[in-house]
Write a structure and sequence with these properties.
This is Saccharopine dehydrogenase NADP-binding domain-containing protein. With about 375 residues, the chain is of the alpha/beta class. The protein has 14 helices and 14 strands. The chain is globular.
Length: about 375
């Protein structure tokens, strides 16, 4: 059994990944620049799971990372240190140099799609390097894999995420989204006209939750899924539960779009604190929707609508699952390397939807499926 080292392990996603792994007896190292935070989380996890093999380590990803990994050494590194928009691959390269499997939760469109540039290096060391082990494209591709065989052709995929107002929000994720609000986005297959971050509003109805406003977001899927599944048109959006916050950010997007020199990502921490003032007007319930439209084998139109609803603040567990499943497999079983395949790749079709939902079974989650 190998150790899993979690970079940013005391953060919003890292702490959830660590707890899930120790619950299945995977040794974990909580790592980051703040040793006291890492030690505090390690102690708390040992109280939750007394027999857990969990340790803390001081690691700066920008200073001596290869040596730190060789000294520990883990079998798998999970990198949760975002935002990944604009990052390079020095952490993944350090893992390759140290002979360690690498997984990240990146949602940066260029970052995840570009991880394949490390493919030859990873294969030469018989390593798995996986980017985007999160909701997108980890869960989104798992849903497509489940339903793709019901279509002769998938013409459109329209999907998105709307977290609950009271659900815990990470600073890195917020910075990532704010980095492109109001900015012109790279085209997406099948979309006509220019796309801008947090614009093109529409209203999505969720089972149990009701209506939520949605707006453009930039994710790796927009490049990866049309190529993997020959989807003709794809659109991804995200939404905030409280209309005032969602529409307020939409208004800010117009200020950026008309050219005002506003760097919203620089104010992410302040905007998160301001958002918290509205918690009393929202819930801890969020959801994700996936709508696939196309033709069946008999040539007739077919539509599949899939939803997952997370209640009581459990929504942030969903992005953690692909990294949990893949890290556990690589740590526990050397055969997993052959199953997953060596090399560098995006997390498309690597996690089965049944395994995904099993991992979430101890949380307050429910899925809905409709088909026409």
């Amino acid at each position: 059994m190998g150790k899993v080292l979690i970079l940013g392990g005391y953060g919003n996603f890292g702490k959830r990944i660590a707890e899930a792994l120790i619950r299945t007896d995977v040794p974990v190292v909580i790592a980051g620049r703040d040793l006291s935070k890492a030690q505090a989380l390690a102690a708390r996890l040992k109280n939750i799971v007394p027999h857990a093999d969990v340790a803390a380590a001081l690691i700066n990803i920008d200073d001596g990372l290869v040596e730190a990994l060789k000294n520990l050494p883990p079998k798998v590194v999970v990198n949760t240190i975002g935002p990944f928009q604009g990052q390079d691959y020095h952490v993944a390269r350090a893992c390759i140099a140290a002979g360690v499997h690498y997984i990240d939760l990146a949602d940066g469109r260029e970052f995840v799609a570009g991880i394949a540039s490390l493919d030859e290096e990873a294969k030469a060391e018989n390593l798995c390097v996986i980017s985007g082990a999160s909701t997108v494209p980890g869960l989104s591709s798992a849903v497509v894999e489940r339903y793709r065989h019901r279509f002769n052709e998938i013409e459109t995929m329209m999907y998105g995420i709307s977290p609950g107002q009271k659900a815990e929000r990470g600073l890195a994720t917020t910075k990532g989204i704010l980095s492109y609000v109001g900015k012109k986005l790279k085209p997406a297959r099948g979309q006509v006209g220019a796309r801008y971050g947090w614009q093109d509003l529409y209203r999505q109805t969720y089972p149990e939750l009701g209506g939520r406003w949605m707006a453009n977001c930039d994710v790796p899927d927009l490049d990866l899924l049309p190529e993997a599944y020959d989807i003709k048109s794809i659109r991804f959006s995200a939404g905030l539960e409280h209309p005032l916050l969602h529409l307020g950010l939409w208004s800010l997007s117009w200020l950026v779009r008309i050219g005002l020199p506003i760097k919203l990502e620089r104010h992410a921490a302040l905007m998160l604190r301001m958002s918290d003032l509205f918690n009393g007007l929202g819930t801890a319930d969020g959801g994700m929707h996936v709508v696939l439209r196309g033709t069946a084998s008999d040539g007739q139109p077919r539509e599949v609508r899939w939803f997952i609803i997370a209640r009581n603040g459990d929504g942030p567990q969903i992005p953690c699952v692909p990294a949990i499943i893949l890290a556990r497999r690589l740590a526990q079983n050397d055969r997993a390397v052959a199953d997953i395949g060596t090399g560098a790749k995006a997390c498309v079709g690597l996690v089965n939807i049944d395994d995904y939902l099993t991992e979430l079974s101890r949380f307050d989650m429910k899925t809905h499926h409709f088909e026409d």
